[in-house]
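User: Please look over both lines:
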Amino acid sequence: MTHEAEYYDNMVKLLELVWGEGYMAPGGPGNVAKLLEGTAAAGKQILDIGCGLGGPALEMARTHGATVTGIDLEAPLIEKAKAYATAAGLQDQCTFVCVEPGPLSFADASFDIVISSGAITQTDDKESIFAEILRVLRPGGYFSCYEWTSSGAEPSDDMRYWMKLEELTYAFKTLDEYHQLLAAAGFENVNSEDASAWYGKEAQREYELMSGDLYAPMVELIGQSDADHFVEDWRAMVIVCQSGEMRQGYCRGQRPA
């Protein structure tokens, strides 16, 4: 099965403008630190699933002292991630590979830590990817993810409208379902943390910035039509975040030693 690219050039430019160079999910270096908290990442081998432009992987290498392999389904993102790594002088610590959907192409017990930020949200078969993550982790290794989740209710008209604006594939689960799926896959010490209150405030701040001081730079960067589209996208997202229908959370589990 071949993946059809969803992240077009202007979308990528917009995400970097809002979330920082190399980032395609919110939170920046603070989100990376949260994902790695308590894992003793220095000197560890990390797999970043859905690495995108590589910003989190570079942060894991530069600040946390890890060696990172980033994988993504979209070749243009991987090429940009490689360029960012080279520009940062981190090409020896960060390897980026374009992959096809399906089983991970790594041997059993290849990594100390597996990270993902947003990619599992877009993965329909979560049972299979969690089984693969468990397989490639070394005994005692951690899987840690930040994902956009749902309330579990039937999508409202507001939610459907926002998802239409997003133009991305989503396969939402509740945070409780993530917890249950990780436990069912064989992870132990599973824990989760709702981050909806944090991102609800962030989304509001981002929307105010995009419709205010950031609007002119957005128009210059991606044109007025796309700028207006993303301002409306964020307005719609604020509504479903504040209603509690679209949620965010962290989930972590450990491969038994």
The chain has a mean pLDDT of 95.
